[in-house]
Amino acid sequence: MEKRLQGLAARAAAVLLLITPSLACADDPAPSPKVLAALKVVFDAMDAAARDDAALPPPKSDSERLIRLGVLDQAGRVQIFKIPWASLSPAEGLAARKALAAKMDPIDRDDLAQVVSMIPPDGWFSYSRYGRAAADEAFAEHGEADPDNFAKMYDRLAIETGPQRFGTQFHCVNGFTAPYPVVDPAAVETRRTALGLKPSFAEMSAGVAHIACR
Q: Cystine design at 145: which of 49, 127, 150, 185 (Cβ 3.0–4.6 Å)?
């Protein structure tokens, strides 16, 4: 059970980077050698993806461009699970998240600007026109959207005015990570199951509970 929770914590840390505002500040101290060593697998993957993309000719279509932006966006994120979070203290974990944000923020801003510049007149990137891979890279909220993407987008908008519905969004409470309030908490697992969302809300909440934040 303990190993499973540690695995969920690693997954949750990756999700947290995807769903929370940047933690990076210009006056943050440089991360320690231990933190940098823990992040090396992520930074190396990001640098390799950037080199590979730079070596390619310009994309021939918006679909290809979206897919390539998605590769750059995910290159580091898919490696976050390999960071030895359990070996980092709460302060080191926070420093690691800030260092990751500082590395990823410029790429995220550039990706967002490019995606916004390509949004079609009918509102978003449909599977039928752009293909599933390209549309998913654009984080579709269209009627043809992936259920996981839909849940995250729905909750991101919901927490601006009230509780979330699917339990995908987290924030800092008393120095540790916790989910934003959820409407009708007793039914959240039912709603998640209906969309095929994994892991469960209870598992995800337990996985992030020890992650320090501020």
A: 150
